[in-house]
Structure formats: structure tokens, C-alpha cells
Amino acid sequence: MKKFIAALLVGAMCVSLAACGSKKADDTADTTAAETTESTDAADGEFTTVADGVLTVGTNATFPPYEYKDGDDIVGIDADIAQALAEKLGLKMEMIDMEFGALITAIQSGKVDVALAGMTATEDRKQNVDFTDSYATGVQVIIVKEGSDIASVDDLANDKIIGVQEGTTGHLYCSDDYGEDHVIAYTSGATAIQALLQDKVDCVVIDQQPAKEFVEANEGLKILDSEYTVENYAVAVSKDNPALTEALNKAMQELKDDGTIQGILDKYIKAE
Length: 272
What we know:
Elements: H1 2-43, E1 54-59, E2 62-63, E3 67-70, E4 73-75, H2 77-88, E5 92-97, H3 103-108, E6 114-115, H4 123-126, E7 130-131, E8 136-145, E9 162-165, H5 169-178, E10 183-186, H6 189-197, E11 203-207, H7 208-217, E12 221-223, E13 229-233, E14 236-237, H8 242-257, H9 260-268
Parallel strand pairs: 1-5, 1-6, 9-10, 9-11
Antiparallel strand pairs: 2-3, 3-4, 6-14, 7-14, 8-11, 8-12, 8-13
Helix pairs in contact: 2-9
């Protein structure tokens, strides 16, 4: 009987050891498979995001109709385009409001994946971030008070003080063209407009679409007929994530081809 029990114990031990050996082998195989999958994903150039399953988008919600607040929600052209792009990539979209001048740093530090904020793909910015293909054309215009002696771009050279939004192309171009002593940068376009109304500046240079909104909301202002400059808006992306730029470009083209981008632009910018 003891021999029989001993035999059973030995058999049980063998089965147990075999099972343990099988588990270890399976774990090794699973780990190897996982490593292989990760390597394949990396080799395929799949993009990464700050948060799994989410496209985190930085913006500056003081720039209607591209981005502005409706209650607690950020709405506008860029918000709608960001949502459409995220859906194309199979991601949720989260938009974070911040100062315009902080957007590129936020991309570089990994706080956000991209920035959609009516941002022009200038050569200076390309030193720090990559850009997608353009999704909209912007025009920088000049806002003055009714009765101003500024009638065209040429008049800005006559020792005028120009109000701009900090970090925008209007800020960059005006500083280059007329010197920083003749430019005052404000944290938002609305603040620059208030400075104009209070005679702290002689004019404001800003994108045409928010300019229309500001002039409509503030009596006694007008937009000059002459344009300051024409530029293209694009999505800013980290230089460390070229696969995301590629994926966004593909999604952007599909949204252009099916009319989604134009539909969003037409929703917010009415034909004159």
C-alpha cells in the first residue's frame, strides 16, 4: 500500500513539474511574442500619443472663429477639425486651452500631441516642431479706429504703435518690419482690441476672421482694405513623432477629399 501511495506521489510530482515547465515555456513564448509585436509596431512606424487612445490638442481659445469658448466648451474651426482628425485616427479628442506662446513648448515637453490654434507654419517655428499640410489660409489685416490717419500698410512706418497678440505671426512680422519698439504684444486679440479702443495703440494686426468678429462687436472700429500678409495654417506636431505627422496628413487629405474640411470652414466663415 505504501509503495502504491509512493508511486502516486511520484507521479503527481512529475505531473506538477511538467505543468510548471509548461507554464514557464508558455510565459517565455508569450513574452517573446509580445516583444516581437512591439518591435513590429515600432518598425512599422506606428505613432504614439501622450495618453493611450486620445489625441491631446493644445489651443488658445481667444481666436474666433478658429477657437473660442462657448460656456465651458472650446468650439470653432480648429476644434471641429481636431475632432474629425481624431475620429479618422480612431482616437478620442481632448483639447487643452493655454496661452498661444506656450503651445510649442507644450508639444516639445509632451504635454500635448499637437497644436491647432490658427498657427502658421513659419520657418522659425519649423526649427522646433513639424507641421502637417495646410488646412486653411489666413490673412493678416489691420484694424484701426474710425477716423484714423492710417489708411494702408505703408502708413505703419510713420512711428505708429502696433498692437498684436503675443507669439502670433502678426507679432513676428510687425516686430521684424517695424522694430520691437513700435509693437506691443498682448496675451489675447481681445486685449489688443481693448488697447486700441483706449488709444494705447494706433492699430491692431491680426487674422482676418477674428478681426471681423472684433469689429462687429466693437463700435467705431474698421478693417483696412489692404492686407498685411497671407499665410497658411497647419497642425503643429512634435519632431519626435513623424509617424503622427504622416498619419495626420493622410487623415487630412481624406477629410479634404470628402468635403469635411470645407464644410467646417463654411460653417464658421460665411461667404460675403
